[in-house]
């Protein structure tokens, strides 16, 4: 199975700052079939980015995704208070589909 | 409104079985792949199983293959997860989830609220 390693594990930032999260795959992700989800405490996840760089419906443009092959990134510019959450990447190009371990973005 | 409602969770003993159900509403169920994703307390998301719209394509996480079986009944707008030979490490909140397309190589766009499975003797 494809193992997704996310880094950093936790990052502490202030509102207004920009952050880049990393997701590295143990083998190439087919057709850039990679998504990013956001999960807040007590809530279900919601998709932010799919196909590595396409924003899901209703997601603000301060969220952007990039990458191909084995290296992918999620960037969040001008952090808003509601952006502090845990972020997961998921590859869906090869079965079994897999999630990364998550990156927590916390308020400094 | 698109909705997924899970049921069937509870306390199960190691080695025993549980069956989870998920009823969908608000969309054409037989047009979309469905998944089960779990989350252990305080841990990350863990993809468990997926099934295409027509049940022709099915996949499992390595950790559950041979013990869990996913199935669907399009006439009942329902997807199921038969969990056999339960292990303590199967303890988690189990989410039913809808894929964006009919084949299961896609991401999740709708999540249920989940049903809790606790495996303990």
Molecular structure report:
Chain A starts with a strand and ends with a strand. The model of chain A has no long low-confidence stretch (mean pLDDT 97). Chain A has no helices and eleven strands. In chain A, the strands form two sheets. In chain A, strands 2, 4, 5, 6, 9, 10 and 11 form a seven-stranded mixed β-sheet that branches. Chain A has 108 residues and is mostly beta strands. With 121 residues, chain B is mostly beta strands. In chain B, 0% of the residues lie in helices and 50% in strands. Chain B contains no helices and eleven strands. Chain B has strands spanning 3-7, 10-12, 18-25, 34-39, 45-51, 58-60, 68-73, 78-83, 92-99, 108-111, 115-119. In chain B, the strands form two sheets. In chain B, strands 2, 4, 5, 6, 9, 10 and 11 form a seven-stranded mixed β-sheet that branches. Chain B has a four-stranded antiparallel β-sheet with strand order 1-3-8-7, with no helix packed on it. In chain B, a hairpin with a 6-residue loop joins β5 (45-51) and β6. Chain B starts with a strand and ends with a strand.
Quick summary:
The complex is a heterodimer of chains A (108) and B (121). With 108 residues, chain A is mainly beta.
Topology:
The complex is a heterodimer of chains A (108) and B (121).
Chain A: E1 4-7, E2 10-13, E3 19-25, E4 34-39, E5 46-50, E6 54-55, E7 63-68, E8 71-76, E9 86-91, E10 98-99, E11 103-107
Chain B: E1 3-7, E2 10-12, E3 18-25, E4 34-39, E5 45-51, E6 58-60, E7 68-73, E8 78-83, E9 92-99, E10 108-111, E11 115-119
Parallel strand pairs in B: 2-11
Antiparallel strand pairs in B: 1-3, 3-8, 4-5, 4-9, 5-6, 7-8, 9-10, 9-11
Rough outline of chain B:
globular
How far apart, in Å, are the first and last alpha carbons of chain A? 36 Å
Helix content of chain B: under 10%
Note the gap between the termini of chain B. 40 Å
Q: Output mean pLDDT of chain B.
A: 97
Main interface: chain pair and counts: A-B, 24 and 23 residues
DSSP strand content of chain B: over 45%
Number of strands of chain B: 11
Oligomer: heterodimer
* Beta-strand share of residues of chain A: over 45%
Poorly predicted ranges of chain A? none
- Taking all Cα atoms into account, the compactness measure Rg of chain B is 13 Å
Helix and strand composition category of chain A: mainly beta
Let me know the largest β-sheet of chain B.
7 strands, mixed
Number of helices, counting only DSSP H or I runs of 4 residues or more of chain A: 0
Estimate percent helicity of chain A: under 10%
